[in-house]
Design brief:
The complex is a heterodimer. Chain A is an alpha+beta fold. Chain A has 3 helices and 5 strands. Chain A has one domain: Alpha-Beta Complex (Outer Surface Protein A, domain 3), CATH 3.90.930.60. In chain A, strand 3 and strand 4 form a beta hairpin. Chain B is α/β, with parallel strands linked by helices. Chain B is globular. The N terminus and C terminus of chain B are likely disordered. Classes of the chains: A alpha+beta, B alpha/beta. The interface between A and B is medium-sized, with 19 and 35 residues. The complex binds iron/sulfur cluster (2 copies).
């Protein structure tokens, strides 16, 4: 049994990696990985690009816009689902400076 | 997974470094080997550095520092720092005895990423009795220190007959300590725990109550604290996917440099492998020990023809050996195993014994296991 609460990121959220989470490039596998005490998540190129933009400054909208500048096709809903999943696993914190969040 | 036969073996993700089997606690559910003294010739700092460098090279990304009590190694901060330099994620699994402010600050400066503290119970008298030494207050102080220094706090609680009725209290304590995560895991019956199994197995009634408490806590603590509840495999229909498969994702290095696919595999009658004799890569990829139960080729029926064989890998080899004498049999925990009666009997006996509450537990202590061999320690 595991208590992962579904989380929905809002456009104004400013996600950043939780403090105990590390994003690293793994030369042995030639891929980026997300490290937590209990899991290793191997990321594809886009996943890593999204997380590198999660700096606690950019909003979700901002992140998607930035990605659109870099990649031909960026699916907004897909990026959000990816962020939702990581937030539910508490890998991401969803700070929002202006509005605040319960 | 690719099979070992075509020579391509996946790289391991995690290394469990059991730095020492020395420990100030005497938990009767400890899964360390019975012959603790046999591991006194511990790897030196230089040897650990070499092991970590080789592990990183092999593809390891996570380093779990455990024991025994890893804080008893004076070079712990040095080991952490080197691991951090290599880019390994470092996780300390500790009883917290010895986690003084000075020590904690050293570890933080060395780059330690995460700390897990074990708790025995929610109040001093029971906790100290289970740990075999006064330790409760010091654990709480250490847990607060972890939070103060900005680490997330994970608490580990091993459950058994004597504390499973206290889960509500434990969760309350975890809330007070502002834990970020709590792992409530039922005892796994290896080492000292297997020796004490009759006195540790909870009754079914206890388990049902516990599950109710955990379910309610999931609701109440949503978004504040992650609660992980690991069911006891003796009471499950299927076995646990032990280590995510033999020699597939994880490896363990024990205090004297022995390398194992899981921390209890020293109980199996298999050839040994040691970092003092071979490079880690050879051990992972080629040693007879790691090849023995890799993949699914070795499986007998019912596993061989079972749909779940890539999900649970036939369960735990150590448990199969401990209970049947044959490490290649289906884990008797599985209800499809021809040996399942062995587990069913132990579970039934626990229901009976829990009613009597008179079990004698042997606290782990060097030399306390008077009949080595009877529960399958290292030969
Ligand atoms: S289970 Fe208890 S005795 Fe065993 S290593 Fe952990 S703290 Fe020490
Ligand atoms: S028969 Fe083997 S593979 Fe199938 S569920 Fe049982 S242990 Fe797992």
């Amino acid at each position: 049994m595991r208590s992962t609460t579904p989380v929905q990121t809002a456009s104004g959220d400013r996600p950043r990696l939780a403090r105990h989470v590390r994003l690293r490039f793994d030369p042995a596998r030639g891929q980026h990985v997300l490290l937590t005490p209990e899991a290793v998540t191997v990321l594809n190129g886009t996943g890593a690009a999204v997380l590198e933009l999660c700096d606690g400054q950019r909003t979700v909208t901002g992140i998607v816009a930035e990605l659109r500048g870099r990649y031909a096709s960026v699916d907004d809903a897909e990026v959000r689902r990816f962020l939702d999943r990581l937030a539910a696993r508490r890998c991401l914190e969803l700070g929002d400076a202006e509005v605040g969040r319960a | 997974m690719r099979s070992a036969v075509d020579g391509a073996v996946d790289a391991p993700l995690g290394l469990l470094a059991e730095l020492t089997y020395r420990c100030p606690l005497h938990c009767s559910y400890c899964s360390n080997p019975l012959d603790l003294a046999a591991y006194a010739d511990e790897l030196t700092t230089a040897e650990w550095r070499r092991v970590l460098a080789e592990a990183r090279e092999l593809g390891v990304l996570q380093l779990h520092l455990s024991g025994g009590e890893p804080l008893l190694r004076r070079d712990l901060a040095e080991i952490v720092q080197y691991a951090a330099e290599l880019g390994l994620y470092t996780n300390l699994i500790t009883s917290a005895l010895g986690l003084t402010p000075r020590r904690a600050e050293q570890l933080l400066a060395a780059g330690l990423d995460h700390v897990q503290i074990s708790l025995q119970a929610d109040e001093a008298a029971l906790s100290d009795r289970l740990a075999g030494t006064p330790s409760f207050e010091r654990k709480l102080a250490a847990a607060r220190l972890v939070k103060d220094l900005g680490w997330p706090l994970t608490l580990n609680v091993v459950l058994h007959r004597h504390n499973v009725d206290r889960i509500a209290g434990v969760l309350e304590l975890a809330e007070q300590l502002e834990a970020d995560r709590i792992e409530l895991a039922h005892t796994q019956y290896y080492g000292w725990a297997l020796r004490n199994r009759g006195g540790l197995l909870p009754s079914r009634a206890q388990l049902e109550r516990a599950q109710g408490v955990v379910r309610a806590a999931h609701e109440r603590l949503q978004g504040r604290m992650e609660v992980i509840y690991v069911l006891p495999d003796y009471h499950s229909r299927y076995p646990k996917p032990c280590m995510g498969g033999w020699g597939r994702r994880q490896l363990t290095v024990v205090p004297d440099g022995g390398v194992l696919p899981c921390p209890t595999a020293h109980t199996l009658p298999l050839p040994r492998a040691s970092v003092r004799e071979h490079p880690l890569r050879w051990i992972w990829e080629r040693s007879p020990l790691f090849q023995r139960f890799r993949g699914t080729e070795w499986m007998p029926d019912p596993c061989r023809s079972c749909d779940r064989r890539e999900l649970d890998f036939g369960g735990c080899r150590c448990q199969a050996f401990q209970l049947t004498g044959d490490a290649a049999r289906t884990d008797p925990v599985c209800h499809l195993s021809p040996d399942h009666g062995l587990v069913a009997e132990a579970v039934a006996a626990a229901d009976e014994a829990a009613r009597r509450r008179d079990a004698v537990l042997t606290p782990r202590r060097p030399g306390a296991a008077r009949h080595p061999g009877t529960t399958g320690p290292r030969a």
